[in-house]
Design brief:
The protein is of the alpha+beta class. It has helices at 11-16, 21-25, 45-48, 116-137, 171-182, 188-192, 209-212; strands at 2-7, 30-34, 54-58, 69-73, 79-82, 94-98, 103-108, 142-147, 185-187, 202-203, 215-216, 219-224, 231-236, 248-252. It has a 6-stranded mixed sheet. A 6-stranded mixed sheet has the order 5-6-7-8-12-9. A two-stranded antiparallel sheet has the order 10-11. Helix 4 (116-137) links the parallel strand 7 and strand 8 (142-147).
């Protein structure tokens, strides 16, 4: 099973750049997109209902052109849900699916910038999300992916010292990822690439940071520890353009 995750920074925009069709052509089993910034009815039909896929969208209720997530699956899920505890989230941040032997959750986690209220919102979202997947875990293993909006360790961003007081690398944000790991969820990239440096998934566009690879690894695939040995490959597709993030993929052998 081959799964891809990508913060596209606007699904219609990346479609206009002709930078999205390759994903459907490569026939991934599951496609997870974040920050689609679109209502489902605004999305061109060829990427709203691509041939060979079931498609599901979670758009925000309160702000157009903001946030949003999309999930495409070759196999029809047993169940599809939106939001923490399967309660529709007003910012369109989660779309998840249940399959025979696992859950997958595609998540656009909040950014902590914009003042203390948004940082508090992010931390509360983190806490509630972890509680939610622990509930799901009692039934089946969990895979979750997306833009977590936090770099975990100093090797996960180009300039850790300069960003110690900035959201995205605050100790309190990083501590949540520690808690995720101690709760039995595995960062698949680090599991297979423990010492790899200069591996990033996001770059600031205003400063042309991608040209210099001054980036952050803030996009992840986490899996339940019980299926961590099923992960055969993990890739950061830094050669793929169209967004300020690049896609990431995992290859998973059959989950029994």
């Amino acid at each position: 099973m081959h799964i891809i995750s990508w913060n596209v920074n606007g699904l219609r925009a990346v479609h206009r750049k002709e930078a999205i069709q390759w994903i459907f052509d490569e026939s991934f089993d599951i496609i997870c997109l974040q920050e689609i910034k679109s209502l489902a009815e605004q999305i061109p039909v060829e990427i709203r209902n691509p041939v060979g896929y079931f498609s599901y969208f979670n758009s925000p209720d309160i702000k157009k052109g903001y946030s949003g997530t999309a999930l495409y699956t070759k196999k029809e899920p047993i169940d599809v849900f939106y939001g923490i505890d399967k309660k529709k989230d007003v910012e369109g941040r989660i779309v998840g699916a249940e399959f025979d032997n696992f859950f997958i959750l595609n998540v656009y986690f909040p950014n902590g910038g914009g003042g203390p209220e948004r940082l508090e919102y992010k931390l509360n979202f983190y806490k509630d999300f972890l509680q939610f997947i622990k509930k799901l875990e009692k039934k089946k293993p969990v895979i979750f992916c997306g833009d977590i909006n936090t770099a975990h360790t100093p090797i996960d961003l180009a300039r850790p010292k300069e960003n110690e007081q900035n959201t995205g690398f605050l100790p309190i944000e990083r501590a949540w990822i520690d808690t995720v790991a101690s709760s039995g969820y595995v960062d698949t990239y680090r599991a297979l690439n423990p010492g790899t440096v200069n591996a990033y998934t996001y770059w600031d566009m205003k400063t042309f940071a991608r040209d210099r690879n001054v980036g952050w690894r803030i996009d992840y695939f986490f899996v339940s520890k019980k299926i961590a040995t099923n992960i055969q490959d993990v890739e950061i597709l830094s050669e793929k353009y169209g967004s300020d993030h690049c896609p990431i993929t995992i290859t998973v052998k059959e989950i029994i």
